[in-house]
Write a structure and sequence with these properties.
By secondary structure, the chain is α+β, with helices and mostly antiparallel strands. The chain contains 15 helices and 10 strands. Bound molecules: flavin mononucleotide. Flavin mononucleotide binds next to helix 3 and strand 9.
Length: 341
């Protein structure tokens, strides 16, 4: 069983993560995979409470569940079980899958964030329904808005405000720049982060990329670019955690991953336009605009549509860098840093 289970990890790491930090570590023991958050890959500026980190773990978890079912295995998930010495998601596999995930499984390597402009074609109602039905978690609500509906204008306004706030914040720009891999060499040595090609930029040396990001890229220009990208799309989807805690953040990742794998299986592209969810005061206003209950949080905002072309794939670190030796734990200072966050 252990080798069958270990063979699932390459699918888990294909999951999306904020700034492609890939903030996960895994252990494999007999029929069990444990997924640990990696505190060295936090994003303290854009994600100070780590909700995006736990969403990313949820995406990796869902890929595991989908890949396991394809191998005939059912997955039982324990969220942060109390008997574990470290905070983790524990997944126990057993013979006998209870669902057919073939289409989703085939979509794992196809899914990618596509930040280009789309062709404006509408996604039909039945494909939209399939994507919404793919949400496996009652703990997460997914709301859909057609870009052609004038009622979405306030949401586009929140995206614009979020974009401007972020690009006016030197700490946000510095953190973003630290995760952009400007040259092909940086991509191949680091194998994480935002590869220039996946962002639609040419490969340039770091000093030049740094200069472009801090001098040429202007908040208004970025906001206008995102505005155009949204208007070329067909739909916006907002993922709402019904409670604002780690377990629900993981569930947002699970829901998001199922929805975008379903989209990918239908040749529908997606990209994040997350800015209003990342800037707290704007997130609060978005929640009010959506009429959410107290405590409910809009945590992800994505656009969907038909891309004009695929983007180059984003890199992933080799598997041996994300699988821990059995018994190896995080260092005390790593853990302390994480608990304080
Ligand atoms: C929680 C979360 C937040 C994200 N936020 C953004 C974002 O604000 N802007 C963006 O362009 N991409 C965002 N992404 C997409 C990641 O940058 C992307 O998944 C990563 O670079 C890997 O690329 P891939 O999705 O093509 O595999 C986010 C992804 C996750 C899971």
């Amino acid at each position: 069983m252990e080798s069958l289970v270990e063979a699932l990890i390459p699918y888990a790491v294909r999951a999306p993560s904020g700034h492609n930090t890939q903030p996960w570590q895994f252990t494999v023991e007999q029929d069990t995979i444990r997924i640990y958050p990696d505190p060295s890959r936090r994003l303290p500026v854009v994600d100070p409470d780590d909700h995006a980190l736990f969403i990313s773990l949820g995406c990796a978890l869902e890929n595991l569940v989908v890949a396991a079912a394809q191998q005939g295995l059912a997955a039982r998930i324990d969220y942060f079980p109390s008997g574990e010495p470290e905070e983790c998601l524990r997944v126990r596999f057993s013979e006998g899958a209870d669902e057919d995930t073939n289409a989703l499984f085939q979509a794992i390597p196809q899914r990618q964030s596509n930040r280009g402009t789309y062709d404006g074609k509408a996604i039909n109602d039945s494909d939209l329904a399939r994507m919404l039905e793919a949400n496996p978690c009652d703990s997460v609500a997914v709301r859909a808005f057609r870009v052609s509906d004038p009622k979405i204008e306030p949401i586009i306004g929140f995206v614009r405000e979020g974009n401007i706030a972020q690009f006016n914040d030197p700490a946000f720009v510095a953190e973003l720049v630290s995760w952009i891999r400007f040259s092909r060499r940086e991509v191949s040595t680091r194998q994480d982060g935002l590869a220039a090609a996946a962002l639609g930029f040419p490969s340039v040396p770091r000093w030049l990329g740094n200069w472009i990001m801090t001098t040429l890229v202007k908040p208004d220009g970025e906001a206008a670019r995102q505005d155009k990208a949204i208007r070329s799309s067909s739909l916006l989807l907002i993922f709402i955690a019904r409670v604002n805690d780690k377990r629900h953040w993981v569930d947002v990742g699970r829901s998001f991953e199922r929805v975008v794998l379903t989209a990918a299986s239908l040749d529908i592209a997606h990209a994040h336009v997350n800015m209003p969810c990342e800037v707290e005061p704007i997130r609060r206003r978005l929640a009010t605009h959506l009429g959410l209950e107290p405590g409910e949080q809009p945590l992800l905002l994505i656009r969907l549509g038909y891309a004009r072309k695929r983007m180059p794939p984003s890199p992933r670190r080799p598997i041996d860098q994300v699988i821990r030796e059995r018994g190896a734990a995080m260092t005390g200072s790593d853990l302390e840093e994480f608990r304080c966050a």
